[in-house]
Design a protein that fits this description.
Number of strands: 0
Structural class: mainly alpha
Radius of gyration: 23 Å
Helix content: 55-70%
Oligomer: single chain
Largest sheet: none
CATH class: Mainly Alpha
CATH architecture: Alpha Horseshoe
């Protein structure tokens, strides 16, 4: 009887392990797919995430509490095709994160000249200040991105 009791517990244990593994699985939301695709420059995946209903202006706080929108990620990684795609889908060109950084601030911080040029050409405000009172040109200068300083100085009001 003791042996039979032990054997009857094994299937229950196996079922418990299987259920536990399934319950911890995490499918990416459409927004997570959008953010990751924007970082990677994957226009097909961006399109798919948008088709699945991703909020183009949702704030990604997975990596830090300041957050970034898909447009900010694309600007950081200099992914101009994705920037164009996100703007066409209704991304707020001057939308900011929790510290007031716009996509243009992130392009300036990362040293992404093509992204900065595109954002400016599409109407991004080069004089928009973050919550610390810094415009994108000041962010570019603080990070040693001379090419960005030049691009932004041509587009900005005199300091």
């Amino acid at each position: 009887m003791g042996l039979l009791k032990r054997c009857s517990c094994i299937p229950i244990l196996a079922v418990g392990l299987t259920v536990g593994m399934v319950s911890t699985a995490h499918a990416q939301s459409a927004e997570e797919q959008l953010w990751d695709a924007s970082m990677a420059g994957d226009t097909l995946a961006v399109g798919q995430a948008l088709a699945e209903g991703a909020d183009v202006n949702a704030l990604d706080t997975r990596r830090n509490p300041n957050g970034r929108r898909a447009l900010n990620w694309a600007a950081w990684y200099n992914n101009v095709s994705v920037i164009e795609q996100l703007l066409a889908a209704g991304a707020e060109i001057d939308g900011v994160n929790n510290t007031g950084f716009s996509a243009l601030h992130h392009a300036a911080e990362a040293g992404s000249p093509d992204a900065a040029r595109m954002l400016i050409a599409r109407g991004a405000d080069p004089n928009l200040t973050n919550f610390a009172g810094r415009a994108p040109i000041q962010t570019a200068r603080a990070n040693g991105h001379d090419e960005l300083v030049e691009i932004l100085s041509e587009a900005s009001d005199p300091e």
